[in-house]
Amino acid sequence: MSGPLHKDYAGAKLGMWLFLFTELLLFGGLFLLYAAYLARYPREFGTAGGQMHLGFGTLNTVILITSSLLVAMAVTAIQRNARRMVLWLLGGTVLCAAVFLFNKYLEWSDEIGKGIYPNSPKLVAAPPGESVFFSLYYLTVGLHGLHVLIGGTLLTLVAVRVQRGTIHAGDYVLLENGALYWHLVDLVWIFIFPLYYLIL
Amino acid sequence: MIPVENVPPAGDGGFWNDTGKTGITAWIFSTDHKRIGLLYFYSVLTFFLIAVVLGVLLRIELMAPGRTIMGPQTYNAVFTVHGVVMVFLFIIPGFQGSFGNLVMPIQIGARDVAFPRLNLFSWWLYIAGAAVIITSLFTGGGPPDTGWTFYVPFSERTGTNVSLAVFGVFIVGFSSIVTGLNFVTTIHRLRAEGMTWGRLPLFVWSLYATAWVQILATPILGITLALIIAERFLGTGLFDPARGGDPLMYQHLFWIYSHPAVYIMILPGMGVISEIIPAFARKPIFGYKMIAFSSLAIAAAGSLVWGHHMFTSGMSDTAILVFSFLTFVVAIPSAIKVFNWVSTLYRGSISLEAPMLFALAFILLFSIGGLTGLILGAAATDIHVHDTQFVVGHFHYVIFGGAVFAFFGAMHYWLPKFYGRRYAEKPAVVAWVLMFVGFNITYFTMMVLGMKGMPRRYYDYLPEFAPLNLVSTIGSWILVSGLILMLVNLFRGLFKGEPIDRNPWGAATLEWTIPTPPPTENFEEEPVVTHGPYDFKGAGIP
Amino acid sequence: MSEQQHIVSYGKLTAIWLGLLALTALTVWVARHNVGIGHVWGSLAIAVVKGGLVIAFFMHMKYEGRLLRWLLFFALSVLAIFIGFTFFDVLYR
């Protein structure tokens, strides 16, 4: 119906940041559990963490950082009114998202094949802390993967609107907010990566 | 001021005549904050009444030892659903959704909230969540029987339909987040010219503090509830000691949200009281800055005390010490508010009309609730009364005697503005007396029972508790009779009562400067604010 | 849209990207060469630097007003408090 009379750019961005805070706190709950259980089971976490695929983790980190660069460049491009460039960059970002998820699929298939998944007989029999580590791993990375999926979809929709010209150099807050969301996905992964793949 | 005879009939004039869509679609697809406010109001009121019925049934069951009207499993389900509906479907969304939406944009001189479509989306999420919760009662293993806290390990193992209920609460939580970020953005961005932070009405300040709690605490509830579902479906074992999990971590996560949630419930209520008292004492509020600051302080300090729900759960002694101390800290800003309200009354020109009576009741009942909270916040005394009827009495004093009485006060104070008609004064006062008396009989008795050792949530009790339980149940009947009288009088008044002009109470905030009922655009031209919210002289009110 | 728009050049963004990649390499290197229990904090410190770069440049926080910066700081502090206060229980039980 009746929209706001004028577009409040700063307001839209403030609203987006507030939403990002809620996302941070959402993942924060899982990080809280991770911290508490790491304090209790440092050794079991170490054994469990040793079974992770560092290769997949590093590769996906590089992919996400690159996708973050591409979407940041897309914002610069729309400010410079380079629409074709924006579309290419957004396409690149979404492609990165897809590759990331595909890697995740390969990684999880392998782990599930080895009998590592929540409530698997292997983990039930394992020392107590290991099961907690892998459950947290699946939940955190799963939730993150869901966000990758949502972010990819969001940026695809944004790209469609750029194509149609409803997002342009004079009004690109949707693109900018979409990019902010995508950076958040990257940001969360920057912490997931060392916590689950590296320090143990 | 417009002459009274020029006021259009109820349900007419102002935003009521905003045509374009007709029938129900003019409401459920409207992005007008006033319509969304009324949608929210009637939705939460409906759930409130449902939960009241459940509460009365609980009291009837407890009237005498042994079975009275229901079996133990039904009893467990009824107290769970009473709690879930009251907390998640009534009082948490209640204030922000209804009076926050109705009044806040007008009070800051805006024509709507920052994101009107998101506002409507929030109501839809709320309704969707509510529908899921209701579905959970009649499907699967039947209504959840865990208590509204969904404590593990029971919530993981019970055969009742916990998963669906929890999913519904998750959706309602998302709705709460959306409202919160909408309100923070609105208050930052859409204040009218001259509406500085120092001229913000105190109701708006309280909504602002509340919105921050909604933004920062609700996601923790979201992840906690998601974890229950994961535990039930995937067997993640995160809270299962046999697998290395720790049930206490669930309690931490749950209360990190659910203690601040208490302030989501009570803070807007305090804001309402801060509006009503100066209007009916005809005196600028005493200590404006301190009340505004204490809203933020309550929100902040209230987020640091969740551990006081876990003193007997096996938490570390250090944590008990820290959380007990912090709990006492919250008492300071709460007391600041109470002292300032009372100081405002001092030498005021007080008119004891219905909204004012509710405000006065609030001060007394909230103080009792707050002070009994300290008994629970001190670790030593808490061990004696933990999980007894004392706790039930305490939080009903805070939430019912506090927040809900403030909600009733807001209904009498603001609803006439939006309907253009008012209720009859005398029945409103009688209803208030009945509720006040019934309330105290019901819940004070519970606190006494708790002191004597009667546990909460128990289906049966020792014969020695019988007389007081009977008293409490009779009190609940008085309470409900007052409630019925109040609602009948209020709604009859809104639809058929005396018309009112734009400022029936002589209050100085912006919503009383515009026509009654408010027009769709709120203000004909963008207002320029030149005086504070309680500056009666500046507003030209005698 | 009257606000000043700050345009971050492709070059600057690419430089940040290279920095992030270097930090990723560093953190993997640190993890492979066991530096003892301190590596938990070391890895987290590197993650914080990486996150800071993303927020400051990719998310334009460096060019935003004071309000957003304070709010972000506030939100992160709240998260830190939630985790930190839980440790009053976890560490001393």
Keywords:
heterotrimer; B: 542 residues; mainly alpha; Cytochrome C Oxidase, Chain A; two-stranded antiparallel ribbon; 66% helix; disordered N terminus; C: 93 residues; 2 domains; 74% helix; 0% strand
Number of strands of chain A: 0
Q: Which protein chains are joined by the largest interface, and how many residues does each one contribute?
A: A-C, 47 and 48 residues
The CATH C-level class name of chain A: Mainly Alpha
Low-confidence segments of chain A:
1-6
Secondary structure class of chain C reads: mainly alpha
Number of helices of chain A: 7
Shape verdict of chain C: flat
Number of domains of chain C: 2
**What is the end-to-end distance of chain C?**
55 Å
Determine the structural class of chain A based on helices, strands and strand pairing: mainly alpha
Which regions of chain C have little confidence, pLDDT < 50, spanning 5+ residues? none
- Residue-averaged pLDDT of chain C: 89
- Largest sheet entry of chain C: none
The name of the CATH architecture of chain A is Up-down Bundle
Question: What is the straight-line distance between the termini of chain A?
Answer: 54 Å
DSSP helix fraction of chain A: over 70%
Mean pLDDT of chain A: 92
Structure report:
The complex is a heterotrimer of chains A (200), B (542) and C (93). By secondary structure, chain A is mainly α. Chain A has 7 helices and no strands. Chain A has one domain (29-198): Four Helix Bundle (Hemerythrin (Met), subunit A) (Up-down Bundle). In chain A, 53% of the residues are buried. Chain B is mainly α and 542 residues long. Chain B has one domain (4-512): Cytochrome C Oxidase, Chain A (Up-down Bundle), CATH 1.20.210.10. Chain B contains 15 helices and 2 strands. Chain B has helices at 25-28, 33-61, 72-107, 116-138, 154-157, 162-189, 202-234, 247-281, 288-302, 317-345, 354-377, 379-385, 389-419, 425-452, 466-496, and strands at residues 421-422, 498-499. The model of chain B is unreliable at 1-7 (pLDDT under 50). With 93 residues, chain C is an all-alpha fold. Chain C has 2 domains: 1-59; 65-93. Chain C is 74% helix and 0% strand. Chains in contact: A-B, A-C, B-C. Chains A and C meet through helix 1, helix 3 and helix 7 of A and helix 1, helix 2 and helix 3 of C.
